[in-house]
Amino acid sequence: MYLKNDFKIESKAKNIKLLHMAPEDNLTKLFLKFKFKEYVCGDLFLEGYKYPNYVKNMNLLELPIIDNSFDLVICNHVLEHIIDDKQAMKEIFRVLKPGGKAILQVPISANTIETIEDNKITSKSEREKHFGQYDHVRIYGQDYIQKLNSIGFRTEIINIYENYKNFALNPKENIYLVTKK
Known about the structure:
There is one protein chain. This protein is α/β, with parallel strands linked by helices. It has a single domain (2-108, 141-180), classed as Rossmann fold, CATH 3.40.50. It contains six helices and nine strands, in the order ααβαβββαββαβαββ.
């Protein structure tokens, strides 16, 4: 809803080069209808999963993309799965054009000031116990904004609940929109 109605992505599409990491099916179906200047979908291919032909095998820790390439990056619910999330954030920063924007959604604990992570926790059961899901390596706290800003981003927190009450959105979930300075 934010991208369509507030960001007005469809009317801007012809001027936007978009990198979409771990592309969600519903968003991708919508985006494929738009006439982006360039639309690249990337994901780290894992054994046992099938990926559509339009998705390229890309590691967010070392993107095969030249610097300052994209106007917009969308990376939803990926960083909590990556041990070196700071490197992944740096890669997103690197491939964004100056003034480019990224939406970097992660699960955030409203009750935790500092991010909880421990790289010694490696078993699925222990990760589920400590981080809420077997394939998560952290629970982000309220310091997520500082983490993003430490990379060089300017972070804007957007809550769209009031504008879209009929869509059953979580009133406490914000959009984390970052801009490359």
